[in-house]
Description:
Its cofactor is heme. Keywords: Heme, Iron, Metal-binding, Oxidoreductase. One of its GO terms (molecular function) is iron ion binding. The chain has helices spanning 8-26, 29-38, 53-58, 63-72, 95-104, 112-123, 132-146, 149-177, 183-200, 215-232, 236-245, 248-276, 286-292, 298-329, 331-342, 351-355, 358-370, 403-406, 410-413, 458-475; strands at 78-83, 87-92, 109-110, 181-182, 377-381, 385-386, 392-393, 398-401, 426-428, 435-437, 476-480, 490-492, 496-498, 503-508. It has a single domain (46-508), classed as CATH 1.10.630.10. The relative contact order is 0.14. Strand 1 (78-83) and strand 2 form a beta hairpin. By secondary structure, it is an alpha+beta fold. Helix 11 (236-245) crosses helix 12. Helices cover 55% and strands 10% of the residues. Mean pLDDT is 87; it is low at 1-17 and 20-40. The longest helix is centred in the middle third of the chain and has 32 residues, at 298-329.
Amino acid sequence: MALLDLQPSTSLLFCLVPLLFLFFIKFNKTITNTLLSSNSSKIPRSYPLIGSYFSILANHDQRIKWISDIILSTPNLTFTLIRPLNFHTIFTANPSNVQHMLKTNFQVYQKGHNSNTTLKDFLSNGIFNVDGDIWKYQRQVASHEFNTRSLRKFVETVVDTELSERLIPILATAAANKTVLDFQDILQRFAFDNICKIAFGYDPGYLLPSLPEAEFAVAFEDAVRLSTERFILPFPLIWKMKRALNIGSEKKLRFAVEQVREFAKEIVREKQRELKDKSSLDSADLLSRFLSTGHSDENFVTDIVISFILAGRDTTSAALTWFFWLISKHPEVESQILKEIGEKSESLLLYDEVKNMIYTHASLCESMRFYPPVPMDTKEATKDDILPDGTFVKKGNRVTYHPYAMGRVEKVWGKDWAEFRPERWLDKDEVTGNWTFVSKDAYTYPVFQAGPRVCLGKEMAFLQMKRVVAGVLRRFKVVPVVEQGAEPVFISYLTAKMKEVFPVTIEERI
């Protein structure tokens, strides 16, 4: 609700409450810590008016793990977090509930007004931020394009070029000079170049040897981070007031979004001019394909492209970052992957060859079980409902399913759930010794979502990741530079990443 729509007394109350909170928190940290330490239950204590705000504040920097630990401590893998002013969010890792949300009662659980409003400035009416007919239309168009053979071939060419001409030479130079690289940054640059070529037919050159600061990439990163921070605030009114006044984080967000959207629009305009001058479509990038089929509305196409960049840049780079960390700690897994790579004929593997890299595929799935690129996803109930485990959902409640927690459920994954073991995804033929991949129920392992909103780019993502793994590991060993026993910190904005950097050295294989 807009501030101007409120009655004067109500407006004053809503303005004062956040200020009172900030005052209370600043001068009562001792009380906060005492209250938290006295609460032995995993489910956070709730108080009148402020709900579980003290616990939310105390666990701000580890909220994914904190919520996961609470979920896993409950008998039905579901609990309700009470936020200030009695706003309820239900968190679940129960596969029956997830199937109910994402498939059985799909029409009830939508992105909803809160999510749409919070991400409106950045994602606008892109596919990840809308419901209903707008979503269906974009889904239908995107589904057709993702299923074309020519797009798959284009993706193969883009990935191969970026791998052979940029990523491999950078790693070779680092190995020769014994320099330390931030491998997370390198993988993000790789993914960003890839998705810009695939989506726009545009090469930002973000992974050139000089590792330049691409203005668009920096603005995009800021837009993702600052948009996410809106969700974390105790009151939406706080960011809405800052936005109206154009101050603080909202001023930075506005600037970042303006850069992203103007840059994307200029590329759309350039592509429209390019297509107008050609009698036939020569380019296979997504933007050309959309425009050539009559989708000429500039804002509509820009929204779609920005959504594709978000999906293509952040998810694959996050998955690969954690994959390389995990195999560095499990040399036996790395040896099995190297054995599989060695059985292939080319240094840059063709689509059909990477498709048959079964053990590598299982290793990636196991890595994403521990560190899903999207560790939480939230829907909003459009009417009263009851989840299969008996949890009542009131209209307007947010319900969040939690892939991070779901990858840690002992009943699903066994007593050895904490072990990184790709073999849990495989069956081995005792006669031939060949592996067969055994997929998991999409509602037990919703890393790529499930139901009508299942990720269209799943096959493309695995293609890219396996080609990177094969191309890198065939020639190099990636060695993390960390103190003994130190573990990187898992954080999440709209998508997950390692906190700060992932420092590594590169060693040539003999």
